[in-house]
Design brief:
The chain is α/β, with parallel strands linked by helices. Helices cover about 45% and strands about 20% of the residues. The chain has one domain: Rossmann fold (3-Layer(aba) Sandwich), CATH 3.40.50. Strand 3, helix 3 and strand 4 form a beta-alpha-beta unit. The protein is globular and about 30 Å long.
């Protein structure tokens, strides 16, 4: 996959931020890295991403949801993938396929951590219609 699309990656775990960013860079994306919600919000003021990959729980338990809502407010057509370890940590299950969940989650895709590279790649290809 070779392209020049911009992907915003927001993650408070430096190792996960590096892993996801490296995967996307190897796929040919221009990656905008942000370590946490505050940096993510700053990045959104500087550039419009073609896609965003967000951690769910960062500085606050709902940081990923809040940032997702901000992206959709600023750039309604920008697809968002949320990565989360909530399921393994709490047993809670967030799915974006149900209509009511989609209305408040705002992300097109939610993937459980640790995310497999092929899983993330497939979601990105589908969202960007590649």
């Amino acid at each position: 996959m070779s392209n020049s699309k911009k992907v915003l990656v927001v993650e408070d775990d430096p190792d996960c931020l590096d892993q996801v960013s490296l995967l996307l860079e190897r796929a040919g994306f221009e990656v905008i890295r942000a370590q946490g919600r505050a940096q993510g919000e700053e990045a959104l003021m500087r550039t419009r991403p073609d896609l965003a990959v967000l951690d769910l729980m960062m500085e606050e338990m709902d940081s990923g949801f809040v940032l997702c809502h901000e992206i959709k407010r600023l750039y309604p057509n920008t697809p968002v993938i949320v990565l989360t370890a909530v399921g393994s940590e709490t047993g809670m299950d967030f799915k974006t396929t149900a209509g009511d969940a989609q209305s408040w989650i705002k992300a097109e895709v939610m993937l459980d951590k640790p995310v497999r590279p092929e899983q993330l790649d497939a979601a990105i290809k589908k969202l960007l219609a590649e």
